[in-house]
Amino acid sequence: MTTANNSVNLRAVVLDMLLENEKNGEFSNYLLNNALAKYQYLEKSQRSFIAKLFIGSIERKIELDYVCNQFSKTKTKKMKPLIRVLIRMSIYQLLYMDSVPESAVCNEAVKLATKRGFVSLKGFVNGVLRNIARNKDSIEYPAESDYILHNSIKYSMPEWIIKLWLESYSKEEVSDILEGLFKEKRTYIRVNTSKISPKDLKEKLESEGVKVVNTEIDYALEISDYDYLTNLDSFNEGLFQIQDLSSIIAGYNSHFENGQTVVDVCAAPGGKTINASLWVGDEGRVYSRDISYEKLDKIEENLDRLGITNVETEVFDASELDESLVAKADVVIADLPCSGLGIIGRKPDIKYNASPEKCAELIEIQKNILTTVVNYLKESAILVYSTCTINKAENEEQVEFIKGLGFELLDMKQLLAGKTKDTDGFFYAILKKK
Predict the structure, then answer these.
(1) Confidence label for 5 from pLDDT (cuts 50, 70 and 90)
(2) pLDDT, position 2
(3) Would you say 282 is a known binding-site residue?
(4) Is 266 marked as binding a ligand?
(5) Is 338 a catalytic residue?
(6) Which of 21, 37, 116, 122 has its CA 20 to 30 A from that of 298?
(7) Do 265 and 128 share a structural domain?
(8) Residue 368 C-alpha from the chain's centroid
(9) CATH number of the domain within which 68 lies
(10) Strands across the sheet with 240-242, in order?
């Protein structure tokens, strides 16, 4: 597909992005955001084509390779990287983009192979894709009786992750999680209540052509039907901040009060810092920390846009003790590095990069940080522990570890992503220092 002025070949754009992801390990959300910013002059439908094809080709990678290997003597692992990602994105179009003619998929793939210097392989590409197109309704998948293998292929989920989830959840729950990963992701915002009421913001957004729906929390809204968020006056005026509903729910239950001192030890991307700052008000103070200037830059950019002045940011390693904060905090927010298995639906790279060994390493990192940051709490103060994973070893088992450090549990909730759920997978626990 080429734009009306013949200047941009959309499939070529996606091919280059997939190659960056495949060869250099660039994260999909980073690549997509950069591409959409670069080509923001394209029609919304064209940008949607880029996004759907790019993300779909990554999140369905295991299935796409499985299908390809049924019709190709050369298995995907043995293919040249460019041919491999070209065939993947083409199979995705054949299976999941009904509006794209099969002939166009095959012809454009052959053209791209030729333009990229693989003239000798254009016949191979054409043959594999046309064979799949003819037989796509009779593709054989693993038997449903083999629950793990069947769902690994069907949902492009590494088998070890499904096995891990089955240790904690029923097959019905795991199936719901897997199916929910592919549903359309909703966008939620936290109202900047220091500038505007939720009611007035809803009216303003609607006047800008945005569809707005209330949520269970009065200062959280669901928005849709917008084009570029950063083009909205309400965004540039600092009237709201993007934040997932699960994170907003955790903040709502975090026992914040006006005038408190809060320490956010792993603050990026900043949603929890912003939420805390609005709760504690001008009489309060939020110390927002993270490990690099790059992480803090985005937080500071949003703080400036929102007009928030009660936050102090600093680059700091959460595993190291900051003597200046000892016994100073009413609330410590510990949203710690984790496996991220709850947000695979938004960041599909996670499932391919994660491993049991990396999960084990993260558990030790979490314990190290927790042992350090509990020192920042006053007596009877509150620790908010949270992750964006649904791995019990990083969640409930870590709560038991925290209790052993001298805390009592006040509240705990595991939010599971799923086809019937409105949130990402998320966990939080509210604990009080004894």
Answers:
(1) very low
(2) 60
(3) no
(4) yes
(5) no
(6) 21
(7) no
(8) 25
(9) 1.10.940.10
(10) 211-214, 220-224, 187-191, 240-242
